[in-house]
Design brief:
SH3 type barrels, Ferrous iron transport protein A
């Protein structure tokens, strides 16, 4: 969980790990422990993105992720 004293805007471009499995409306999913980058934030939550796969170059993006679902990587 990202503590309340850390603003969501200050998390942009930082890396985090997921604390639980999540998925978006298109069925793309990310498992707990997955390393993601926070690419934007607004009053509804943060948008996160996985790194590109070195083989197939695919990645997943999920919006409106809450701070309780992420742990920042130092």
């Amino acid at each position: 969980m990202i503590p309340e004293e850390i603003t969501m805007k200050s998390c942009i471009k930082r890396y985090a790990t997921l604390d639980r499995d999540i998925h978006n409306g298109d069925g793309e999913g990310m498992g707990a422990g997955c390393r993601v980058q926070i690419i934007s934030a607004n009053n509804r939550g943060m948008t996160i993105q996985t790194e590109k796969c070195p083989c197939c170059h695919q990645f997943a993006t999920i919006s409106n992720v809450k701070r309780r679902d992420l742990t920042l990587i130092k």
